[in-house]
Amino acid sequence: MTSDQLTRPAVRFTGKPMPRKEDDRLLKAQGEFGDDTPVAHLAYVVFVRSPYAHARITSIDVSAAERVDGYLGCLLPDEVEQLTEPYVELQGPPADVEVDRCLASGGVVRFSGEPVVAVAASSREAARDAAAAVVVDYTPLPHVVDARSAVLPDAPQVHEQIGSNVAFDALYDWGDIDFALENADHVIEVDELHFHRFSSTPLECGVVTVEYDAGVDTFTFTGGFATPQLATFNLAVALRHPANRLRVLSKDFGGSFGVKLNTHIPATAAALLARKLGRPMRWTETRSEHHLMGGHGNERWFRDVKMAVQSDGTVLGLSYDALDDVGAYTRYEPLGGVIWTQVANACYQLKHLKVRYRSIYTNKGPVHPNRGYSRMQHMWLVERMMDIAAHKLGFDPVEFRLRNYVQPDQYPYTTVNGCVYDSGDLPLSLRKALDLIDYPGARRLQRELAGTGKRIGIGIGSTLDSGTNNFAQARLLNAHLPFGGNTEGALVRLGADGSVYATTGGVAFGQGHETTVAQVVADMLGVAYDHVHVQRGSDSSLSAQTGFSGSYASQFAVTGIAAMINATKRLIREISLVASSVLKCEPEEIELADGAARVRTDPERALPLAAVAGIVHFSPVDLPPEVAEEVGLVARSVYRAPFELPDLDRKYGNLTLTYATQIHACVVEIDEETGHTKLLRYAMVDDCGTPINPMVIEGQVHGATVHGISAALFEHFAYDEHGQLAAGNFYDYHAATALDLPSFGYDSVVSPSPFTPIGAKGMGEGGGAPLHALSAAIQDAIGTQGMVLASFNPPERVLQLLRGLDAEKVQVLR
Amino acid sequence: MTEINVIVDGKQETGAVQDRTLLVHWLRDSLDKRGPKIGCDTGNCGACTVRWDGQLVKSCMVLAVQADGGTVETAASLSEEDGSLNRLQQCFKDHHALQCGYCTSGMLMTATDFLCSGEPVTEEATRRALKGNVCRCTGYHNIVRAIRAAAEETP
Amino acid sequence: MNLSGRFETSAAATALLALHGGVDALAAVPTLRDVRLDGSGNVRAVFTPRSTFVPMPFSITVAVQQAGAEGVVLSVHGTRGPTAVDVMLVLGFTPGPQGTYVSWAADVAIRGPAATVGQRVVRDLVSSALEEILHDTAAVA
Amino acid sequence: MILPPIQYLRPATPADAVATLSEVDGSVVLAGGQTLLNVLKLDLAHPAALVDVHRIDALRGVRHTEDSALVIGAATTYAELASSPDVRRTHPEVADMAAGLVDRQVRNRGTIGGNCCLNDPTNNFPPLLAALDARFRILGVAGERVLRADEFFLGTLTTAVGRAELLTAIEIPALPTGSVVAHEHLQVGADSWALARAVVRLDVTDHVVTDARVVLGAVYGSPLRLSDVERMLVGSAPAALPEVELDLDTADDVHGSAAYRREMAEVQLRRAVRAAVERSGR
Prior knowledge:
The complex is a heterotetramer. Chain B has helices at about 25-30, 85-95, 105-115, 125-130, 140-155; strands at about 1-10, 10-15, 50, 55-60, 70-75. The model of chain B has no long low-confidence stretch (mean pLDDT about 95). Chain B is an alpha+beta fold. Chain C has 4 helices and 7 strands. Chain C has helices at about 15-20, 25, 115, 120-140, and strands at about 1-10, 30-35, 45, 60-70, 70-80, 85-95, 100-110. Chain D has 3 domains: about 5-50, Uridine Diphospho-n-acetylenolpyruvylglucosamine Reductase, domain 2, CATH 3.30.43.10; about 55-170, 2-Layer Sandwich (Uridine Diphospho-n-acetylenolpyruvylglucosamine Reductase, domain 3); about 180-280, CO dehydrogenase flavoprotein, C-terminal domain (Enolase-like, domain 1), CATH 3.30.390. Chain D contains 11 helices and 14 strands. In chain D, the strands form 4 sheets. Chain D has a 5-stranded antiparallel β-sheet, with helices on both faces. In chain D, strands 11-12-13-14 form a 4-stranded antiparallel β-sheet, with helices on both faces. In chain D, strands 1-3-2 form a 3-stranded parallel β-sheet, with helices on one face. Classes of the chains: A alpha+beta, B alpha+beta, C alpha+beta, D alpha+beta. Chains in contact: A-B, A-C, A-D, B-D, C-D. At the A-B interface, helix 2 and helix 21 of A face helix 1, helix 2, helix 3, helix 4 and helix 5 of B.
């Protein structure tokens, strides 16, 4: 099957807004989420957590817990040190001596909320009571919650044994920014910008159920595992248990957005208790726990930022020093230290870029990948600098962006670091976005309202959603890591009943994989959409998965679908083999349509797929032996993304396969007395190549948009002076409600990717465009009297901006 | 333990609960009702929304013992008798008003209550009606569209 | 968080000073129960402030850091479920016409869920709880 | 989240409730429970028993006295207040406040008495009730006492209601003819926490302000009545407020610094006065 075949008129489902297969069970309250699954003899785990940001554990007393009716046992840090290995660290020396386990290790807690004791009991109530009865005494240690302080010579050490709070330190230097800064017509310098800490906070918190089968010495983990094979690998190492005796399952899964990539950590503790106490164990995370350690997004300081601009508005490049605050442990970090380089150029034709990037430990919750992982921080900075330059140098913000965008005729476009942007039409996308917000009308409104106490601001956010990682980029972080390229697997079979069964290596948590897989497979096999049954969730014991399987990094439309296409092609070959032997023709003469295999030149000669299945499963005597032994009607295939190893010395090479683009535009109204920002209009234009299901795509765009809007205006994982999280649940962490938001304007541009099997690009993360757009809109409303140098702009900050905040931190050197 | 008798989704249920047991836990753990979900600790997210004696409530802020003698409806009661989607559920499906599905049952309960209330189903009123239900996937746009479509289709 | 206050009590400074080891006297404070000395000579008790609308009992450990005729420095560590409160309390005694002026200054750290949920209220609650316990304690001296 | 172990008691009458509260050590009133149960989940408090008064008929509903005062049972829910034609007829500001509170689920459970007895600084009703000269009826073992707002609200999370007492009703006098009430607030998001809140009531006769109530919420432990500002408004025609600087002792939180809250209180105050003046001209 070729892309031609998918776009020919016979295509019935692919590219259409097919209703989702997942929906009926979810709408009827018949889904099965992590805490839904009934398990016989189930016991419950509750963690006792540190209230201190940094402290030495002086004593642990569980005697009162032992007296609680229903108490089964507990797990203490010493026991974990004896029974487990530390989790694998990605970073090289010296920070690779970090020790990370499922309970505080080395007798020290390093962030408020770190688990210290895991308590198991026969009911939820007993587990809660027993955990509450555990007494842990601490001796506080000095703590550090600001990455800028953490790099000072006398800073408290988060990991004493490392001897520094720097987990990763790299210099990226492409082109010649020093020359550009010396010779450019203009140079803009900004002292410091801040991208704040927040997360997508999925509505279902973490949950994992662990069953240990002593007879076969096997653990089965059920819960929210977004990368099942990597989780298996981590669990196997930590538990010192053979990977072939670990099974990782996910069913319905209430959102991850990246932050659930580290479910293996609490799962380790639950597994130890399940084995020790001989009962299935479930840990159900509370919202408050999730906010403490369910995974925060990367917080980043950009310092000493310089941008070189020509008088005609051409931006040459920029340089900056990044301090990325990763919290107390590098759980998926410091991968963020290279992931941002996937989009080094952002949407622009930069020729020169120099970044010193450091990942910094602090006594705060560990960061996890979070929707837009590490790329949106960099793109926010670039977009902010474009906007600041336009304002300070007097360029029209629209024209300035248009001039510097990668232009449609430049694709495939190679960036400063060797990434290849596959396709797009940013100018068209921007024009469509501006149409959706009625840009001239908004400018008129801005003039009309001047002096009334309300100010109008118009903002543009240009961003990329880079998808399908080249995992070899991990070697830029640590040359010894054995990763390279990317794959995904798929399994398709024709069941004995003639139905089609498809299993993907991906793990959906709302993206509609059951739907999009069925669309593509049904078209390829010429069967009805309802005829394709796609397995819910994932099962690591099925051979659908590869090492990289899972849902992360915006890639399913490329890797998941391509693997499914490859597997379906194999199944088609088998079906053709059977049909041709029955219909007495060559396999190449067979086509699949209307639920049957038929002779292309003589469609009357047809064998329904049910008959194909029936013969293979129940009547193999009807087949020639060589066909019967060749055909199992089970096809497994892998898609290997076309990557090469990057040049590690130059840090140069293609790091992702596709680059979906998104342009957002918005109009805000700011109350001059309070600083309150009201969103009047919001629009987004998405270009993710050839769509498989445009309805699903638009839904993903909406979701990513609200994560960004809510982060820009409401959500902040702020820590106080004592290292305490000041937004520890949805009381103070205001996740936007329906009332906070306007209806959206939405449009799309379709620039098929030349690099993927059907021209689709990965999408869904969204690249943080609302953060860029809202910063720009607030700047537009304020003018240059204050400068928007933070991604989080609550009312108080906006009021300060109206009064000149940070104006002095931006200088036009030339 | 206290014995309680509650009609849940049309069926008389008897349970033995501790005084401290929240209604949501009894519905989920004892009755395997998967409509009410737990998404927060503080009554903000609305995932546990049910109707109790005809009133919309968050079942994480009601004790199971309080419901003794009453009637509770969860999202499992919404479908048509033949098991097909009701009008509102169908509108949610048609308008892609759910992604992961975790908030969906609570959303459906709130939307049902709103549509029954006789309030005008304007954009603003719909958004206001939903403010006690958090969704982290959809951005609400399609949920609002689905509810308004359901209102238009109501004969 | 820094808090401070001052009040007058009829007790003599010496009587106030004697309190830190005086488990029997402290047991008479109405908002304290289970008062005892632990192995380190620190006072342990359960303190339930009177004023809040719901009882909020805290297990507290009081250690005397310094004691002299003019005042004492106490470190108070309290826990209530997952919440921990640490107070460094400096008490100064000066003679007054009716007995003793007690001035107090507290450096307070709140940790755990209360650090979040209590942001708007914790300052007032801690302040009134300290006032209350100091008054009550002075009253039994 | 699981609550700590607790006993649940449901007395049938207000007198039974008071008896229960006095007999059961560590017992506390459970009204709507929309805050209390969260406090318990987070293990911030630990009463021994909950005394559920939500279903006591004598504590529910509204009525008017002969002199048109509105008497609201303490366990009356926000939803009941919002939909009551009686409340809307004489005290529309009470109905409006109830209708705008939190969300439709919580409005069905949350009670005006609970809102007042908790006296969280961000609560909506205390400043409004202070501005309306409400009286609070408190039942104890020894009988009933009636308090004014300034006697009732004592501080953050603290009221005059003792451990073995029960707020039974809130009585709001009829507003004088020509009286107008306005409230303004700044919230997190479109409609969440109040960062600052102001309620202003002007009693206007023959275009002259004869009496005024100016009350702030959300910035202070209790509703804060600003007598100085009231004096500035009384005695002349309703007019916008000149610049005032308030000397408020308030606290930082994650949404705003104390200084910002202070300034926002001033802004809301000016806006509420302006809104009241506009209303008086209608």
